[in-house]
Design goal:
With 231 residues, the chain is of the alpha/beta class. The chain is 54% helix and 9% strand. The protein contains ten helices and five strands.
């Protein structure tokens, strides 16, 4: 009788231990990490920190009860591909992230840099981005370069030349993204609403406003979420 009592007590404790263990697994969901690589469009020139597109994307995840740490951003206004590379090297990135975004190239175009050099440097940056997610390329996404011809700043220059140049650089980064089977989000059409909808342009008359960044996130959020949660 005593043996039976001890056996039942053991089963009860074991059951409690398992339920506690299962409870811990369900109550403590994974907190995802996000690395955003780029230039002024990633650091959010002329908008508040919370209005930057990586910050808005992370906030959307949290609204969806998906735990997302504050994005780690490596980006500076004016950076070209080689300057982003130097910035990454200086940061000594040594951890694996759950999500990485890459948006770079407008300053290569603006400065009249070689498209062939951009192609080589962008491809290397994308390879690095994939390495930062431990080879899980479905966890990387590329964002197209906005068309700043559709801003007051761009209208004061040769807007046709700007649009043509941006399109050429976007053709390169899209082709490379497809080569590596990485998601590519074309937000350029949204940026072209800047003159008809002034609220989409920041106060500096050049960069996207927080409202435009929100439209970016709206356009690719569901796809990014699906890729993040896929495995």
């Amino acid at each position: 009788m005593r043996f039976l009592f001890l056996f039942l007590l053991f089963l009860s404790c074991s059951s409690k231990d398992n339920s506690i263990s299962n409870m811990k697994e369900t109550e403590i969901p994974k907190e995802y990490s996000y690395l955003a690589l780029g230039d002024s469009y990633t650091i959010g020139e002329s908008v508040a920190e919370e209005a930057r597109f990586p910050m808005q994307l992370a906030a959307r995840f949290r609204e969806d009860t998906i735990k997302m740490d504050k994005p780690y951003i490596i980006a500076t206004t004016g950076w070209t591909t080689d300057e982003l590379q130097a910035g990454i090297d200086n940061e000594n990135v040594d951890q694996v992230y759950d999500l990485v975004s890459l948006l770079i190239g407008v300053n290569n175009q603006y400065r009249g840099y070689s498209k062939s050099v951009y192609e080589v440097e962008f491809e290397f940056l994308l390879q690095q981005a994939i390495s930062f997610v431990n080879g899980k390329k479905q966890r990387v996404f590329v964002v197209s370069i906005p068309d700043y011809a559709y801003t007051p700043f761009g209208q004061n220059a040769d807007s046709e030349v700007i649009s043509k140049g941006v399109a050429q650089f976007n053709e390169i980064n899209q082709r490379i993204a497809r080569k590596y089977e990485v998601a590519y989000h074309n937000i350029t059409p949204i940026s072209r609403k800047g003159m008809e909808q002034p609220s989409l342009v920041a106060e500096d008359n050049l960069h996207p406003s927080g409202e435009q960044y929100q439209l970016w996130v709206d356009s690719f959020y569901e796809e990014v979420k699906a890729q993040l949660l896929a495995n």
